[in-house]
Amino acid sequence: MSRLDSFIRRLEAQRAVLDWAAAAIEGREGLVIEIGLGNGRTYDHLRELLPDREIYVFERDPHPNPVSMPPAPFLVVGDIAETLPAFRERHDAAAILIHADVTTGVPERDRVVFASLPADVVALAQVGAIVVSGWPLDHDRLEPLPRPGKVPEGRYFIYRCAA
Ligand SMILES: C[S@@+](CC[C@H](N)C(=O)[O-])C[C@H]1O[C@@H](n2cnc3c(N)ncnc32)[C@H](O)[C@@H]1O
Predict the structure, then answer these.
(1) Containing domain of residue 102, as a range?
(2) How many folded domains does the chain comprise?
């Protein structure tokens, strides 16, 4: 598969998963957390899907397309190894949806660099919260859910946070 095809499939999977996740949290209270602002594409999609939600975005180096810059109070700048635990101190387990889209681009490196991410995500998630991620998050409280629609296996990972 060409890199172009792979990129397109990744974006299609992201959109399908975020659309599904937004519907899955309908009627349930809680914050939305976006980990990895990047260009701001998925943040922009989430805020369009969920205009009435508070969406907090975590990013160490925020340089999105200017139209997708989160409002200052909702942008948490810094390394997630520090900012996620600090956010937990202030907000407790308040998230109903968490989207993790941080990567070094090398899966084997991600597992080392982001080793604390699964536990940090679980600490922020309400029981029953939906967690979606571009790579697998291994944690006892993250129960895998089936992928929606035609999202291919291994493209995106979906979990419910158990008690
Ligand atoms: C794949 S991009 C996110 C793409 C974004 N979701 C979009 O749709 O445009 C990953 C982002 O994670 C950020 N990132 C990587 N490691 C990080 C860390 N340790 N702490 C905070 N942000 C980090 C990078 O700076 C980058 O902007």
Answers:
(1) 3-161
(2) 1
Is the pTM higher than 0.90? The answer reads yes
pLDDT tier at 8 (50, 70, 90 boundaries)? very high
Q: 58 with 84: CB under 8 angstroms? A: yes
We report the CATH number of the domain holding residue 66 as: 3.40.50.150
In Å, how far from its chain's centre is CA 110?
15
Which residue is closest in CA terms to ligand 1's atom 15?
A: 102
Q: Positive or negative, the Cα torsion across 4, 146, 20, 75?
A: negative
117-124 vs 80-91: helix crossing angle, rounded to 10: 20
Name the residue of 12, 35, 37, 112 to mutate for ligand 1: max ligand atoms within 8 A of Cβ.
Answer: 37
Cα–Cα distance measured from residue 158 to residue 81, given in angstroms and rounded to the nearest whole number:
22
Indicate the pLDDT class of residue 100, thresholds 50, 70 and 90: very high
* Cα 58 to middle of ligand 1, angstroms: 8
Integer-rounded Cα radius of gyration of the chain: 15
Of 30, 11, 58, residue with least CA distance to 156: 11
Rounded Cα gap, residues 39 and 65, in angstroms: 6
